[in-house]
Structure formats: C-alpha cells, structure tokens
C-alpha cells in the first residue's frame, strides 16, 4: 500500500509589491517540507521572492454544481459595470 | 603552469563533479516528484560550480585544455575526488547520507576558501556558499526526518550511515598539492575544522536518533586516484557521448 503525503497549494509572490499568486500544488509531509519543495519545484528559475503554502484541505471551494445560482445572475446586469458614464476627454487611463 | 594550483582546483572540483553526476542519475527516478527535482537542483548547482573551477583550471593549464576536456576526457585514475561522493544511490537513505556527510564538509570548506589569497577561488567560494548552505539544510533535514521517522526509514538511514561513515576521514586527507597550497595561503587547511566537522555531523545524527559508528579504520585513496569499483561505471556513463562522438557539441 502506498501512502501519499498530503497535498499543499503553493502561492508565490513574483516580486515585492505584487500579490501572491497561486502557482500550483505539491505533496509534502508537513508545512516545512512543503515550503522547501515549493522552493525547488516552483522558484528554481527565480520566479519568486516569497512563498506561502497551505494544505489543500483547508481551502473551501465553491461547488461547480452551484455555478448557476452563484454566477449566472451577474451575466444580465451590465449596469454593474461603470460603463455608462460620459468621461471628459482630458481623463485618460480609465 | 602551476601544477600544484591546477591539481588543487581539480581536487575541489572533482568532488562536486562526481557527486553532481550521481545526483543527476536520479533525474526522473527520485522517490517523489518533489525530491527528484530537489536532488537534480543540487546536481545543477554543483555542475555550475564545477564549470567555474574547470574554466579557471583550463586557464592555468593554458595548453588547449578546456572545461569540457578536463571534465570528460580524463581516465579513472586521473580523477581525484574523495571516495564518498562516488558511492552509488543504493536507496534514498544512501543518497541523503552521502549528501549530508559531504555538505557538512563542503560548507565549512567554502567558508574558509572565501579567505583564499587566490581571488578567483575566493570568488567562486563566495558565489557557491549560498547554494551549499541550502544543500546542507536540505540534507540535514532529511537525515532527521528519516532517522526519526518510521522503523523502516530509521533502519535504512542507520544502515547508510554505517556504510558511508568509513569514507568521512578521507575528506581531511591532504595531498602534497594541498599542503603546498595551504602553505601559500591559497588552500584551506581542512585539519583546522576536522574536529568541528565530526562534532556537527554527530550532533545531527544523534538528534536523528541514530548511532554514530565507532570506527578505527577509514577508507582512503580517491584523492590519489585510487577509486572504488563504482567510479569506472559512473565515468563510462558520463563520458559515453564524448568518447563515442569526439568533439560532439550539444
């Protein structure tokens, strides 16, 4: 019988000032090993300056079966995007 | 050409070259994806260091030798690595024990090499020490995990320690080239940190609930080019392409 190590999710900040982004997942026996493994698997080409790991089981995910009620009501409500304002020409980058 | 300096550099670099090749054998064969990548990362760190050493050695030889010919076209007796690093990857416990027993030495060695009178060697040491400091952390951590892990992991790592401990003393063996370089302030006097090496290695092993072997006879010979039966096979695989297709480039 093969016992697998628990699964961990890895978040990496690619440079100071940016947020941590989800990079992927890996197996490790505990949090310390997860950090070391994340360093070896995800940052060996200098992708990051900071790593977070969290055991996957601690993440509560939305159920894809509920996508209808969760997300579809937003689709026909274009007025929730602030696209109906006339902007003066001198305002750039909006 | 300064033969002593050339031989001294080979003495340092061959350890990393042969250990790097051993670790490289695990590429795609590590016990898990994560440890597989970790071992091959260490391998690549070591090869990077080897390149710097051999480029410098080629420059000193100044007779057409290159980093590649020094690495690939010597015969077994011309390699001067310690016997420890050529020992095979019997299982993960052997790989980790070999790495740990070398890393403790390698780290202490580079700390001192940074103070070398030879500016190039000091610079290579300075660049390498961050990598080696990570290698040491990685291997010490695994020694403790396996020693203090399951009954099976404990027995395997104890077994590896029992077998590989006999190769530790050779790390401190000094060749005539070593002694000349030490006298000139270029080489590292390894005897100065020998006691400390055994103290630190022992501390980690004890923390890992392992028993340190009580040996009176230690293996040696690698630094004079007299190797165990394992090196020939390693070189056959490592040199195969260059020997079969001379001057082939990738």
Query: In angstroms, what is the radius of gyration of chain A?
Result: 20 Å
Low-confidence stretches of chain B: none
Q: Kindly report the oligomeric state of this protein.
A: heterodimer
Could you give the count of β-strands of chain A? 3
Order of secondary-structure elements of chain B: HHHHHHHHHH
With helices defined by DSSP (H or I, 4 residues minimum), what is the helix count of chain A?
Answer: 2
Description:
By secondary structure, chain A is of the alpha+beta class. Chain A has a domain at 1-59: Ubiquitin-like (UB roll) (Roll), CATH 3.10.20. Chain A contains two helices and three strands; from the N terminus they run E-E-H-E-H. Chain A has a three-stranded antiparallel beta sheet with strand order 2-1-3, covered by helices on one side. The model of chain A has no long low-confidence stretch (mean pLDDT 88). Chain B has a single domain, classed as Up-down Bundle (Ferritin). Helix content of chain B is 65%, strand content 0%. Chain B has helices at 3-24, 33-61, 67-72, 83-86, 92-113, 119-147, 151-164, 176-183, 194-207, 230-244. The longest helix of chain B is centred in the N-terminal third of the chain and has 29 residues, at 33-61. Chain B is globular, with a radius of gyration of 18 Å. The model of chain B has no long low-confidence stretch (mean pLDDT 96). The interface between A and B is small, with 12 and 11 residues.
């Amino acid at each position: 019988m093969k016992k697998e190590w628990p699964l961990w999710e890895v978040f990496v900040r690619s440079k100071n000032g940016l947020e941590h982004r989800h990079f992927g997942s890996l197996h490790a026996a505990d949090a310390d090993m997860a950090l070391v493994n994340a360093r070896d698997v995800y940052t060996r080409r200098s992708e990051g300056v900071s790593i977070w790991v969290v055991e996957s089981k601690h993440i509560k995910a939305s159920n894809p079966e509920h996508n209808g009620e969760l997300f579809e009501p937003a689709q026909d409500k274009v007025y929730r995007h602030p696209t109906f304002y006339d902007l003066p020409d001198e305002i750039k980058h909006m | 050409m300064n033969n002593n300096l050339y031989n001294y550099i080979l003495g340092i670099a061959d350890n990393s070259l042969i250990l790097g090749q051993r670790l490289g054998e695990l590429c795609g064969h590590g016990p898990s994806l994560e440890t597989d990548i970790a071992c091959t990362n260490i391998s690549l760190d070591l090869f990077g260091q080897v390149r710097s050493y051999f480029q410098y050695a080629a420059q000193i030889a100044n007779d057409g030798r290159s980093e590649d010919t020094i690495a690939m076209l010597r015969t077994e007796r011309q390699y001067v690595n310690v016997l420890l690093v050529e020992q095979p990857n019997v299982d993960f416990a052997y790989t980790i024990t070999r790495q740990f027993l070398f890393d403790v030495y390698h780290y202490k060695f580079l700390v001192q090499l940074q103070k070398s009178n030879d500016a190039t060697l000091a610079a290579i040491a300075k660049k390498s020490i961050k990598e080696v400091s990570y290698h040491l952390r990685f291997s010490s951590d695994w020694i403790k995990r396996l020693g203090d892990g399951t009954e099976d992991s404990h027995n395997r790592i104890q077994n590896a320690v029992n077998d590989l401990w006999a190769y530790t003393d050779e790390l401190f063996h000094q060749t005539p080239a070593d002694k000349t370089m030490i006298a000139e302030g270029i080489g590292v006097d390894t005897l100065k940190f020998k006691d400390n090496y055994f103290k630190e290695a022992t501390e980690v092993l004890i923390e890992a609930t392992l028993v340190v072997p009580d040996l009176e006879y230690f293996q040696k010979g690698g630094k004079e080019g007299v190797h165990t039966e394992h090196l020939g096979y390693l070189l056959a695989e490592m040199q195969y392409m260059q020997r079969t297709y001379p001057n082939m480039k990738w």
